[in-house]
Design brief:
The protein has 236 residues and is mainly α. 65% of the residues lie in helices and 0% in strands. Helix 7 (111-130) runs antiparallel to helix 8 (136-148), helix 7 (111-130) packs parallel to helix 9 (152-161) and helix 10 crosses helix 12. The two termini are 30 Å apart. The mean pLDDT is 95.
Length: 236
């Protein structure tokens, strides 16, 4: 699983390596009130793959709007995405909130750059949903990214194939307590139909018969009934 993600990250570094940072240019294209010379030197003079989340945090949140240009963002993007793959990274949760790809019209970028980003997102989801140690928070964050950038069908297809317990329990809890996912009507319908499909009901049923926890079994049973009868689901 991680090998696929490692390959996609290395590909990002290879594809975007042509974008270089010039301190003077970065200074000229950054807000003089918001961005200090110290911050600029810190991220511009250190090897890209050695930059920490803390060092890149300000740039990550303010890129293009008040901190550098699109080319500057492209330079740092591989490291930003690289850092996102670690479970304790705040970058993963904040990536959708501090939207920069659509802001930078990334779908007009050279096709090899678009493909590298797409491959990374898909590999990140594949790794997340197939990891037996994954968490609800990781699934939620990466799924929101897949929704944001139009990869819902790919996400659901991979989800149908995964055998991890957490991937199914996430569904159970989401059905009962609501999914913290941003969806439009079209995606709501797609997800609802997928959740009520025979393959997903079968997965939930399988977990029900394997658990010895009576409380959990009851919750699974309720979730199964909701999906089987195609009752409305909650997304927030």
């Amino acid at each position: 699983m991680k090998e696929k993600l490692d390959i996609s990250v290395q590909n990002l570094y290879n594809i975007f390596e042509k974008y270089h940072i010039d301190v003077a240019r970065l200074r000229a294209n950054s807000c003089f009130c918001c961005v200090t010379n110290k911050e600029i030197k810190q991220i511009a003079n250190k090897p890209l793959q050695q930059l920490s989340e803390e060092e890149l945090e300000h740039f990550f949140r303010s890129a293009v709007s008040t901190f550098g240009t699109i080319d500057d963002y492209k330079h740092f993007l591989p490291r930003i995405l690289d850092l996102m793959r670690y479970p304790n990274s705040d970058f993963l949760h904040d990536f959708v909130c501090y939207e920069k790809l659509n802001y930078s019209e990334w779908e007009t970028w050279p096709i090899e750059e678009q493909n590298a980003i797409e491959d990374y997102f898909i590999a990140l989801w594949y790794t997340t949903i197939n990891d037996k140690n994954t968490t609800d928070y990781l699934i939620e964050d990466v799924l929101n990214i897949m929704l944001k950038y139009g990869y819902l069908e790919i996400a659901l297809s991979e989800w149908s194939n995964t055998q991890t317990l957490k991937s199914t329990l996430f569904i159970v809890e989401g059905v009962l307590s609501g999914f913290n996912l941003k969806v439009n009507t079209r995606n709501y319908n797609k997800i609802s139909e997928w959740l009520s499909s025979e393959i997903m009901l079968s997965k939930i049923e399988d977990v029900f018969f394997k658990t010895n926890n009576k409380t959990l079994a009851n919750r699974i049973s309720i979730a199964y009934t909701i999906l089987e009868n195609k009752y409305d689901l909650t997304f927030c």
